[in-house]
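Appendix C: a fully annotated inverse folding record. The material below is reproduced so that readers can follow the format used throughout the book. The structure is listed first as tokens, followed by the designed sequence.
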């Protein structure tokens, strides 16, 4: 890998298919025990590699005390802060509004020392967007609203999705704008989510570390993520179809 920072996502299960959470996971990097950083769709660990060879040990233990050990050798090419780490593919879509891609999948350079929040902020500004957010680029960054002339003209919510939302009992809202798109527009469950390689992290962009080749999608939802397949938004309550 290039760059010292690395997010390790684990989803172990026992022989019956039951998920094993952080209590049953031990992660040790170069002899140092790492506590889990987040637990949502995955149990996640933010690791910091040494330049050169690293030894990663993982022990998974089930509820009855049975365990299995894994060992990995990971070679890191460290670079200085601000140096290029590679490229990710980044896109923005509002499929749930019938708008498709607001920004088609685009290659974006990532740099050592930057979390995803910095990459996304630069990406948005370069493409003429302004945005509203909570938190900061360093802590708890949440994208609340995107703004650009004409961003939300031509909205046509699929009828099938309308029926799902009605059956879900969510409240439709009168609030909407032609030149911005954000939380509480159209429906009580609306807002922006993001995925990395199709997974929905349970942490903010300011905590997300991406690597060369990752695919990041910023996606609008009308139903707390249930319409775009976000598991933590409702687990089995997610809609059968993903828009």
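Designed amino acids, in order:
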């Amino acid at each position: 890998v290039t760059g010292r920072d690395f997010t390790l996502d684990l989803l172990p299960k026992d022989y019956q298919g039951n998920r094993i959470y952080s209590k049953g996971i031990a992660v040790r990097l170069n002899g140092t025990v790492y506590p889990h950083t987040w637990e949502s769709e995955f149990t996640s660990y933010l690791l910091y590699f040494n330049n050169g060879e690293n030894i990663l040990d993982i022990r998974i233990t089930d509820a009855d005390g049975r365990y299995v050990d894994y060992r990995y050798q990971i070679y890191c090419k460290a670079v200085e802060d601000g140096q290029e780490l590679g490229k990710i593919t980044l896109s923005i879509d509002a499929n749930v509004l019938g708008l498709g891609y607001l920004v088609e999948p685009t290659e974006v350079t990532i740099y050592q020392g930057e979390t995803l929040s910095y990459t996304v902020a630069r990406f948005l500004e370069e493409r003429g967007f302004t945005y509203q957010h909570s938190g900061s680029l360093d802590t708890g960054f949440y994208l609340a609203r995107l703004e650009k002339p004409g961003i939300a003209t031509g909205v046509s919510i699929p009828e099938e999705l309308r029926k799902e939302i009605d059956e879900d009992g969510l409240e439709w809202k009168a609030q909407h704008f032609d030149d911005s798109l954000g939380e509480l527009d159209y429906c009580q469950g609306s807002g922006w989510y993001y995925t990395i390689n199709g997974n929905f992290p349970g942490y903010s962009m300011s905590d997300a570390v991406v690597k060369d080749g990752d695919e990041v999608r910023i996606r609008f939802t009308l139903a707390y993520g249930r319409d775009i397949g976000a598991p933590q938004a409702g687990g089995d309550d997610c809609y059968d179809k993903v828009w």
